[in-house]
Amino acid sequence: MSLKGKRAIVTGSNSGIGLGVAHELARAGSDVVLNSFTDRAEDHALAEEMARMHGVAVRYIKADMSEPAECRALVEQAGGCDILVNNAGIQHVAPVEAFPIEKWDAVIAINLSSAFHTIAAAVPGMRARGWGRVINIASAHGLTASPYKAAYVAAKHGIVGLTKTVALETAREPVTVNAICPGYVLTPLVEAQIPDTMAKYGMGREEVVEKVMLERQPSRQFATVEELGGTAVFLCSDAAAQITGTTISVDGGWTAL
Questions:
Q1: Does the annotation count 152 as an active-site position?
Q2: Which of 3, 12, 117, 200 is the right S-S partner for 18, CB 3.0 to 4.6 Å?
């Protein structure tokens, strides 16, 4: 399908899942706004490289997703958007009684509240243009739970609830709102963790991936950023016009257990 003439904002998109989704949207013809909290030369170079690769307009805009005003300003500085992908996220692992308050606040702000602010800023423009797609990157942890991840699981469950609520508010308009729920995804960050995990358990790469990292993922295979990007492109298509207020799991069967 073609997304030519559309503009997409992807938060937290200078690496990992966000960057993979941005590439697939650009490959489909959409102009793209990349985002993170840094403002380095390499961030802007990344946008220039993507523009050359896909022949679309790509900008990088710095915005700290822990700051409500910056979340909303991102949409304004981009000139609005037809496609909004809320991907920015962080993680912290600790027992609930020892979970640092500042870490709880940061995870909720970046993983949940930022999506509220960008959606609130973007939806009026989508309504005015008569077309819009909001795609929230949730997680298998938006549908199930794991111990020691209180803030992350709470935020991702919140993202799923926010998705359903805004979908109901826009249900009579050509604006859809959905969540993608990945399981374990092979990103550079995950790839970098494999050698340490191998050393910790005294296992080879394939064994540590299958028996340790992907223990909860029945397919015993990582999802890829390209697969998540392809799912996002599908949700932007005419074929998905009546898909709204729901979650799509890309988790190798994790949430089927």
A1: yes
A2: 12
